[in-house]
Each structure stands twice: as structure tokens, then as C-alpha cells.
Design goal:
Number of strands: 14
Strand order of the largest sheet: 3-2-1-4-5-7-6
Shape: globular
Strand content: 15-25%
Largest sheet: 7 strands, parallel
Distance between the termini: 15 Å
Helix content: 25-40%
Radius of gyration: 20 Å
CATH class of the largest domain: Alpha Beta
CATH architecture of the largest domain: 2-Layer Sandwich
Length: about 350
């Protein structure tokens, strides 16, 4: 595609946007998606490192020619919306500043994902801006579309919760989950640009390994969100979540093994997933198990559900950097700005 020196600002542009934290994988992709978006104008990209470099020089596969700069409060006067791609803990004070200046914000960190403050602090530490939690909306459009459209602060889910919750929500809504094991596999980009030695090429090539198989901080998040859609308002009685890194750069597959509360036929299972997702623009129900490459560099989630002996198997695959982070942020921002939620996405 063309690589203009200035952002295209077509008639009808809905908002000027800042991306904070654009040096990381998710922030850089978010900036690229805003840059290419037909109704958004990318005004600034900021980072806590690499300042003075053009983003397209740091990430040559992207076309954004803007220079990275340090974030300043004066930047807030130039935009109506922001995507924040800071680490957990570092995001909250920046989001609070932005909200104080009237910006609508999509936050990619976990800082506003929990409804329950003690659960957040158990997983991530002391929250610096707890007063913003009540106004934050969990940014999974397939479950919260109406609330997102009215929100001014959206907490964008990460990749593991996105795929796991989409895989299990129809079963949770029907009150069917007694026990579930979530076997999750992600490409190494899920650990971020500064993921460390354990996420590097040498550690992961020709290798697959579980990490934090007990007490992972995404487990309570997944449980909390499933409880919000269940008939009795409770999470599954037993929920096991085990993540793995696999030797690919991006992509994610979750395999969910569910013991149901009662016997479920394949016909009923198919009906539950069709009822939940057949009209969703970015969900595709599959009759064969999906692979990670099937939806690479798209905002899609592919789901396969099967009655297997005494269990239900549900597999969901996404691109961890797209639907699991940056493109879902654009989907949320589209809704917040009263745009077609599919604009600028595929």
C-alpha cells in the first residue's frame, strides 16, 4: 500500500488518536492500524525509548513515518482518543491523566480489566487509580458491545482471556460448566518485546514448554468474566489454566476440556454456539479444528466445538497481537466512536 508522508484525513474523520507505548509489539501494531484506518487520524506515537526514531524505521514492516517522542501532557490537547500500550501498573496513572483531560481511552494493560479490586491487587499489586475501575468496561465486543459503545474507558483484554472467554462463554451462559481445563498455547510475541531470555529464539525453537501452570494471573480474570455471563453469577467450580509458549512468532490456540453439568448432544452444542456467534463479524465457527495460521494478521477468532465422550472440547484460535491485543483495541475504539466496528479491520 502507499506510504504517505502525512496521515490521510478523509472527510468524515471521526477522531484524532495518540498511541502511547508504540515501541512495543502491540503499540506499534496499534499505531499501524490507526494509520491505515479510513476514519481515524494518527497524530502522535510515543515511547519511553527509541525517541527521535521514525516508527517505520524501528518496525520496517509498518508504514508509520511519525517520529517517536516522549509523552507530554500537551499532547492530550491535540487528540480526542488514545490507545495506551504500557505495562501493567505503568498504564494506570497515564490513563488517569488522559481521562482527566477528557480523552476516550482504550487501555491494553490489565490495570482496568478486573471488577474486583482485591483480585486485581492479588494478581498485579497495588492499584494506583482504583477510582477509575467503576467506569471501565471490559473490551470484549462479543459480550459487551452495548456497554463499550457508551464507554469512555475500555480495558482491552489480553490474548489468553480473549480466546478462552470466547471459547467458553456460550457454555457458561447455559450454566453447563462444572469443570474446565484450558490448555493455552501462544507465540513468543505474547511475552512482549522485552520478554527476556526465556522467550528468546534459543529457548523456544524446537521446544514447547508450560509456564506458571499454577496461579497464573489470567485465571481469575477468565473466571470473573465467565461468572458475569453465567445464570447464577458464579465462575466454574473448577477452572485450570495452563499457558505454553510455542516456537512461532505470533498466534494463539486454546483447547478447553469441559466436564458439563449434564449430558449435552452435539446438536445442542452446535445450537449454543450458533446462537451466540453466527452474526458476529469476526467469529467463524469451524467444523474442523482451527490452526494458528488460519487467522494470522486478522481480527478473527475461529472456534470449533465437539462433544467428545464425557467431555466437551472447544478450541479457539486467534492472532495474539491482533484480536488478542491491537486489532481488538481498534474494534473497541470503533464502537466508542459510533463507527462501524469492522472499519479498518479484516
Amino acid at each position: 500500500m502507499a506510504d504517505p508522508e502525512q496521515p490521510i484525513s478523509p472527510e468524515g474523520t471521526r477522531a484524532r488518536v495518540l498511541v502511547a507505548g508504540a515501541t512495543g509489539y502491540a503499540g506499534a501494531l496499534a499505531a499501524e492500524l490507526v494509520w491505515r484506518h479510513p476514519r481515524l487520524e494518527l497524530v502522535a506515537v510515543t515511547g519511553r525509548s527509541e525517541t527521535g526514531r521514525k516508527l517505520r524505521d524501528l518496525y520496517p514492516r509498518y508504514s508509520v513515518p511519525l517520529e517517536l517522542k516522549e509523552l507530554e501532557e500537551s499532547d492530550f490537547d491535540e487528540v480526542e482518543a488514545a490507545i495506551v500500550a504500557y505495562p501493567h501498573g505503568a498504564a494506570a496513572p497515564v490513563v488517569a491523566q488522559m481521562r482527566g483531560r477528557g480523552l476516550i481511552v482504550v487501555d491494553l494493560s490489565a490495570d482496568f480489566r478486573f471488577d474486583n479490586l482485591p483480585e486485581y491487587e492479588k494478581a498485579y499489586g497495588i492499584h494506583s487509580e482504583p477510582e477509575l475501575l467503576d467506569g471501565a468496561v471490559y473490551g470484549l465486543p462479543e459480550l459487551n458491545r452495548k456497554r463499550i459503545a457508551q464507554a469512555e474507558l475500555v480495558a482491552n483484554p489480553g490474548c489468553y482471556p480473549t480466546a478462552s472467554i470466547l471459547a467458553l462463554a456460550p457454555l457458561a451462559e447455559a450454566g453447563l460448566i462444572e469443570d474446565v481445563v484450558i490448555d493455552a498455547k501462544s507465540g513468543v510475541s505474547g511475552a512482549g518485546r522485552g520478554g527476556g531470555e526465556s522467550t528468546g529464539f534459543v529457548a523456544n525453537t524446537e521446544n514447547v514448554a508450560a509456564y506458571k501452570p499454577s496461579g497464573h494471573r489470567h485465571r481469575p480474570e477468565i473466571g470473573e468474566k465467565l461468572s458475569r455471563v453465567s445464570p447464577d453469577g458464579t465462575a466454574p467450580e473448577r477452572l485450570t489454566f495452563v499457558p505454553h509458549l510455542v516456537p512461532v512468532d505470533q498466534g494463539e490456540l486454546v483447547s478447553c476440556y469441559v466436564i458439563p453439568r449434564r449430558v449435552v448432544t452435539q446438536e445442542e452444542l452446535d445450537g449454543l454456539f450458533r446462537g451466540a456467534y453466527e452474526d458476529e463479524p469476526f467469529i467463524r465457527l469451524r467444523d474442523v479444528p482451527p490452526g494458528m495460521r488460519d487467522m494470522r494478521e486478522t481480527n478473527q477468532c475461529h472456534i470449533f466445538a465437539l462433544v467428545a465422550d464425557d467431555r466437551i472440547l472447544v478450541e479457539a484460535a486467534i492472532d495474539n497481537l491482533w484480536k488478542g491485543a491491537s486489532s481488538q483495541a481498534i474494534q473497541n475504539l470503533n464502537l466508542m466512536l459510533d463507527l462501524d466496528e469492522t472499519e479498518g479491520l479484516r
